[in-house]
């Protein structure tokens, strides 16, 4: 996506407090983790309760602005301040505004406002938001963010196959030059078929129904977001939570571009994995973007669930699978 179309100042101004995260592994200066090289991160909070529940975040290609959705029915927008080497050092001009329904009214309540996924088309003019509980995909005109009406987008799978609180957790738009030719793809968190595989779909264009494919599910892991690499492969962010003693973990799986098609069952290798020895929390969002040095960057964001024991985190990495660890200025 190019420069932002949405006004970065839309909505109600809020203050977000930040602390930088300089090391990903808590007791190590290591920077390379699987296919990723850690660049930097933020731990952030706000006295405004609407900042809780961040489910998805998308950045502009220069990494200067972001747009996100929360599972309590809000847009969150603002700027990302950056320091040496492009490290995130804070937020500015942060605002919040309610997501709108088909009549243009503010969405109220968790059951209707549980936004879990977000994708923005390459023009920057349209945002697609995936909701669970009342399962649906809504399209919004970003030329009128915070005020525009929601437009329904047909689901590629039967709504009866989506579990109440385990629905459309990932929305991503494939590169135009890829086998999927710019299609919108969605993957469920834990809506499974009779063989235990995850329902996923290719959203139809021009109002068409689309098609279903499946993603192989592994015990203990659930999808929390996804996005496409520039070459067309799909990265799926997954998390596991096994209680207070079993611990928390995250990982990223890479699905080959040409594997995703109607009727397919797809799988792919794990290219990144982390646990509580690292600076992670309930990581809900993943965005892939290109910086001004031509590097592919990954931004992950967590949802603190309004819990004293959890944190809002923003973590940034450089995609390094195809070469040596990225050169990080300032280390």
From TrEMBL:
InterPro entries: Phytase-like_dom (IPR027372), UCP031900 (IPR014567). SUPFAM superfamilies: Thermostable phytase (3-phytase). Pfam families: Phytase-like (PF13449). Residues 50-305 form the Phytase-like domain. This is Esterase-like activity of phytase family protein.
């Amino acid at each position: 996506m190019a420069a932002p179309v949405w006004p970065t100042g839309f909505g109600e101004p809020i203050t977000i407090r930040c602390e930088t995260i300089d090391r990903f592994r808590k007791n190590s200066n290591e920077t390379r983790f699987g296919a990723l090289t850690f660049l930097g991160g933020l731990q952030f909070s706000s006295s405004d309760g609407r900042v809780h529940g961040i489910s998805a975040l998308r950045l502009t290609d220069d990494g200067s602005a972001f747009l996100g959705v929360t599972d309590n029915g809000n847009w969150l927008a603002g700027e990302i301040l950056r320091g040496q080497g492009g490290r995130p050092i804070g937020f500015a001009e942060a605002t919040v505004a309610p997501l709108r329904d088909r009549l243009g009214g503010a969405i109220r309540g968790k059951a209707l406002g549980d936004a879990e996924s977000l994708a923005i088309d390459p023009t920057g003019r349209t945002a697609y938001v995936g909701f669970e509980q009342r399962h649906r995909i809504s399209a919004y005109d970003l030329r009128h963010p915070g005020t525009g009406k929601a437009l329904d987008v047909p689901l590629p799978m039967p709504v009866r196959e989506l579990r109440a609180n385990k629905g459309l957790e990932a929305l991503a738009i494939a590169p135009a030059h890829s086998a999927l030719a710019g299609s919108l793809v969605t993957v469920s968190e834990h809506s499974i078929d009779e063989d235990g595989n995850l329902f996923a779909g290719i959203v139809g264009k021009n109002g068409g129904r689309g098609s279903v494919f499946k993603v192989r599910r592994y015990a203990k892991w659930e999808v929390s977001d996804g996005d496409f690499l520039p070459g067309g492969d799909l990265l799926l962010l997954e998390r596991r939570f096994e209680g207070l003693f079993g611990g928390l973990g995250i990982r990223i799986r890479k699905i080959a571009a040409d594997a995703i098609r109607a009727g397919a069952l797809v799988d792919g290798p794990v290219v990144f994995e982390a646990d509580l020895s690292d600076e992670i929390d309930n990581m809900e969002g993943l965005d892939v973007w290109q910086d001004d040095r031509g590097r592919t960057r990954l931004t992950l964001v967590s949802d603190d669930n309004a819990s004293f024991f959890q944190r809002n985190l923003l973590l940034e990495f450089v995609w390094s699978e195809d070469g040596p660890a990225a050169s990080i200025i300032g280390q």
